Amino acid sequence: MRGSDLGILLPMTTEKNRTHYSTPFHRFRRLRKSAALRDLVREHAVARADLVQPLFVVPGRGVEREISSLPGQYQRSVDALCTYAGRLVDSGILAVLLFGIPEEKDAIGSAAWSSDGIIQEATRALKKEFPDLLIISDLCFCEYTDHGHCGVLREGDVDNDPTLVNLARQAVSHAEAGVDIIAPSGMMDGMVRAIRSGLDERSFFDLPIMSYAVKFASQCYGPFREAAQCAPSEGDRRSYQMDPANGEEALREAAADVEEGADFLMVKPALFYLDIIHRVKERFHLPVAAYNVSGEYAMIKAAAAKGWLDEVQVVLESLLSMKRAGADILITYSALDIADHLP
Ligand code: PBG
Ligand code: ZN
User: Fold this and answer.
1) How is residue 1 annotated by DSSP?
2) 268: annotated active-site residue
């Protein structure tokens, strides 16, 4: 609207009136006037290079089975996984996070450190076809144990120290298969130290550890447990995952992992824990990964399916909130869906 139009509509609004205020005020709208100005002053952005796509690998050939609580996400056999990885690479996604569902489960999860295990096979196949695609392997036992807990049990609870020994075995086995980053997710005390020394003993000095340093016992993992077939048959994970009520403790968890040699810190879930992402980033100055978990993805998907939200735009806004909070890396099931909308 030009000044003269304003004058017709509101004859009392003159240039004189505009300067009448006795106290100055800030015209923030000056920097929002055009798309170019907004681009120029934008503080944060999401880029394709930030994204990590989680993937579920299952035994067999030609398997591509949609996960009902995670629409658009699939369990795939190694061959189908490689086909799909081609699409990720073409979209400029640099990294995947692998979860494996083994053929056989037992009480200790021994399939997790087998040289022909599901992650090991998938890693070798992916590396052969896409040597530059970064493979992050989730390191835990819940997919491999017949009871669904994240380690070996003693009197109904996960026994920490024997689990550490197995974690080091699993890490070495993943390293031998060729993964690029090891990501332990079980929230065992001392897990980073145990894995670091296991890897170093076998001369994998340069293999980085992305620790799930701060992982809360969240209700938002529900869909994942269907996808990875890893729901505990009895009890829950509250004796090892963190109480959602605690913030200071999250910093103690992260500090311990930094001391033990973690190269990246992860906070999980992301959206209900943006304060934690912020505090961890401010305190530790390591690359921070935010895990935008299955329940967070499912909520947006469900609302979008009802036509209540614009899925892509809401996902982009939510990922931006994680970057603004301090995350460097975004692990999200939406990675491929949004890649084309990003620089
Ligand atoms: C297993 C693991 C879980 C997730 C990642 N690794 C589930 C759990 O702890 O029960 C959750 C991921 C998601 O919900 O997307 N240790
Ligand atoms: Zn687990």
Assistant:
1) -
2) yes
